[in-house]
């Protein structure tokens, strides 16, 4: 009974992660599919294993609490990993465009001075 519930929870978590990766946008699926599938598999496995020994209400509430805690934990880790990626804001794009113009002007001035030196 326990192995059957564990295999059922694993297959359900895999199908959920496949569904999330196909339905959610790319930036959400990478950070949400793993925590959701892990928390769902933990929820199902704990609810099935604990319900054999403890009361049904207690086991469901405990497994829901643990899966919610793990979901938030993995979501925080995914959010911290996303913060390390450089995101180009519109104001940064304007600064980069003006920097590119000033570099282009400097390069043209250097070309003019080298042409005058050659003459």
TrEMBL record:
It comes from Anopheles braziliensis. The chain crosses the membrane at residues 57-79. The keyword Transmembrane helix applies. This is Uncharacterized protein. Residues 99-119 are annotated as: Disordered. It comes from the Eukaryota. Keywords: Membrane, Transmembrane, Transmembrane helix. Residues 106-119 have a biased composition (Low complexity).
């Amino acid at each position: 009974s326990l192995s059957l519930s564990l295999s059922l929870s694993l297959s359900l978590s895999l199908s959920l992660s496949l569904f999330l990766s196909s339905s959610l946008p790319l930036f959400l699926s990478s950070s949400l599919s793993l925590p959701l599938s892990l928390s769902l598999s933990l929820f199902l496995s704990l609810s099935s294993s604990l319900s054999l020994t403890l009361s049904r209400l207690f086991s469901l509430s405990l497994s829901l609490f643990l899966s919610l805690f793990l979901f938030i934990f993995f979501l925080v880790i995914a959010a911290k990993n996303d913060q390390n990626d450089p995101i180009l804001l519109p104001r940064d794009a304007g600064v980069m465009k003006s920097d590119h113009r000033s570099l282009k002007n400097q390069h043209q001035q250097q070309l003019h001075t080298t042409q005058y030196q050659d003459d």
